[in-house]
Write a structure and sequence with these properties.
Keywords: Membrane, Transmembrane, Transmembrane helix. It comes from Schumannella soli. This is SbsA Ig-like domain-containing protein. By secondary structure, this protein is mainly beta. Among the domains are: about 50 residues, no CATH class; about 90 residues, Sandwich (Immunoglobulin-like), CATH 2.60.40.1220; about 120 residues, no CATH class. About 10% of the residues lie in helices and about 45% in strands. It has three helices and 34 strands. The radius of gyration is 36 Å and the shape is globular. About 30% of the residues are buried.
Length: about 500
């Protein structure tokens, strides 16, 4: 085909150029030879440049704003049940500095702080209050030259369940172990069986001692919530007493006694059992001589596998039954009264006064107990010491010989004097015992109604028509009433 004759359907080159010139004229386009389409490489370069500008802007913005809290990790149950529980706050970037003075917790609580990169860990040496909204505030660098900004995190602690034993249950052929939250809700039957003598609450189980017709005892572990059970083997005809849980550390303690003439001869011999073991047999706790230890009483050291035992000669021994180390003597004392809340300090009493023993140092210190301000002729019952300042609660009774009745009350005493913390609404009611919640926030007070009578159990007898009131230690207000007695806090 000749160059002078263009292909059919295609305009000649000069026609195309003329049309382009007209369009440029009309739209004022500069089609000079130096302007060329960008192509994909040019477009990508412009996009990347724009993205770098955005990223740089975001980085600058992040550098100029304070770190934020991404999340908080904690075990709510541990915060109210264990000493030394932790809350870990994760920030969106690391902070260069953060001292204890830069952290506040409201309501006030003792804590220590550790920083590791973008994680801030708060450790609480004392158990926190139940059902409480805590606010943690961090004063952190804000990126504008070292001044500070405040970021906050809310933490809510749960309400615990309290267990009680109900012997005059709706089913006359079975006793019931009941469970109910301190903040209310339905009361649940956790376990039911004829003639329950004692029970103890483990992290995921109940230990229950029941009485046979001949007075012999059976000890079983009940798994919650399904209710399956296993029996812990004990000597035939042996009675079981002082059934106690070590709490979160998961051990069980109890004493065994056999009737005269029955072998093996046991007289309140202390044993412990580890539910993680598959043996089904307890292990005797041994004394300084390596022989099974007979005890008057014992208490578990909170949060540990150790216990303080009071032998029959009143000597106290610090023992970890899970280890082979020898017991540590703590001296002889007339009464073992448990631990100061949130401490490793045990309270003891003697005829000439009380003392505290710091288990971390072994030091014994006299305990000054203030006057309670109650009439001298009244009877003093159970005493529970609240702190090192000597504050305590006690059960006081006032006999009225003209009416043949006795009035009961719980008194809170301290350096500023004493006051009535709780008194049953009915003058004829009696207080069986009172004990503190593990965090010392509430007092569980067992109240026997005027119509209550002995239930005639041969071991750990109690009363009919008995209930447990949960009393706020700070105000004396009754937070909850529970049917039954022997609350799990005791």
């Amino acid at each position: 085909m000749s160059a002078e004759h263009p292909a059919p359907g295609h305009p000649p080159d000069d026609a195309i150029a003329a049309a382009a010139a007209r369009d440029a004229d009309e739209y004022h386009l500069d089609l000079g030879p130096e302007r060329r389409p960008l192509g994909w490489r040019g477009t990508l370069a412009i996009a990347l440049a724009g993205l770098l500008v955005v990223v740089a802007g975001l980085a600058l913005g992040n550098a100029l704003r304070p770190p934020g809290i991404v999340r908080a990790d904690f075990d709510g149950a541990a915060l109210i049940e264990q000493q030394g529980a932790r809350v870990v706050l994760h920030l969106d970037r690391a902070v260069d500095r953060l001292a204890t003075k830069d952290v506040t917790v409201s309501p006030a609580a003792s804590f220590s702080v550790q920083r590791s990169g973008a994680a801030v860990t708060l450790t609480f040496p004392e158990r926190l209050r139940y059902g409480t909204d805590y606010r943690v505030s961090l004063r952190v660098p804000d990126g504008k030259g070292g001044t500070s900004a405040t970021v906050e995190q809310s933490i809510r602690t749960p309400w615990p369940n309290v267990y009680t034993l109900l012997r005059d249950a709706p089913d006359p052929d079975a006793d019931q172990i009941l469970s109910r939250s301190v903040d209310g809700g339905a009361t649940k039957v956790a376990f039911s069986a004829p003639r329950i003598a004692q029970y103890a609450v483990l992290p995921s189980q109940l230990a229950v001692a029941t009485l046979g017709d001949a007075g012999d005892a059976t000890l079983q572990l009940v798994t919650l919530p399904e209710g399956s059970s296993d029996t812990i083997t004990t000597p035939q005809h042996a009675s079981i007493d002082l059934l106690k849980s070590s709490g979160p550390s998961g051990l069980l303690g109890y004493t065994l006694t056999t009737p005269p003439g029955v072998e093996p001869a046991l007289d309140h011999v202390l044993e412990f059992y580890d539910p993680t073991s598959s043996s089904g047999i307890g292990t005797a706790v041994t004394g300084l001589d390596g022989e099974p230890l007979s005890v008057l009483d014992y208490v578990w050291v909170p949060g540990t596998t150790s216990l303080v035992a009071q032998a029959t000669d009143q000597s106290l021994l610090l023992i970890d039954p899970t280890k082979s180390a020898k017991p540590v003597p703590l001296g002889a004392h007339g009464e073992l009264r448990g631990f100061l809340p949130n401490t490793a300090t045990v309270v003891v009493a003697d005829p000439d006064g009380g003392s505290t023993i710091d288990l971390t140092t072994g030091e014994t210190t006299p305990l000054a107990v203030p006057e309670d301000g109650q009439p001298a002729e009244d009877y003093r019952g159970e005493v529970t010491v609240l702190d090192r300042a000597g504050r305590y609660v006690e059960v006081v009774s006032s006999p009225d010989f003209t009416r043949g009745a006795t009035g009961f009350r719980v008194v809170l005493a301290g350096p500023d004097g004493g006051r009535v913390l709780y008194q049953p609404a009915d003058d004829g009611s009696r207080i069986r015992q009172a004990c503190l919640s593990p965090n010392a926030q509430y007092l569980a007070v067992e109240v026997v109604s005027p119509e209550g009578r002995s239930d005639d159990y041969p071991q750990t007898p109690s009363f009919t028509a008995i209930s447990t009131n949960i009393v706020d230690v700070s105000s004396g207000a009754v937070a909850r009433g529970l049917p039954g007695f022997d609350p799990s806090w005791c």
